[in-house]
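FIELD: query
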Amino acid sequence: QVQLVESGGGLVQAGGSLRLSCAASGRTFSAYTMGWFRQAPGQNRDFVAAITGGSGATDYADSVKGRFAISRDNAKNTLYLQMNSLKPEDTALYYCAAKTGWYPHRSPKDYAYWGQGTQVTVSS
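FIELD: result
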């Protein structure tokens, strides 16, 4: 079992930055691939970014590539999402999730463990 708790969301103006954190507890954090997803009202839960447990390889949705950066600190059992150049269309509830193995990792169905989400609102 892995327990995940997100934090760092808030209200920011377009062009601003936020850093989300996801604190993990339970079994060995470094063994898990970690992902960020987001869900706007009435929309599907969409893939944002993922990072492997060991090598730190990353993958990003095209919509955030070059603006967002996923990282992890295995010593602190914490996952991060640095979000820069935020746009109103980035407004959503952001979730972190954990899974074993790397592929596949872009669908919510690939992940076994989820946090409860943190709200990000970007004003224009």
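FIELD: remark
The chain is about 0% helix and 50% strand.
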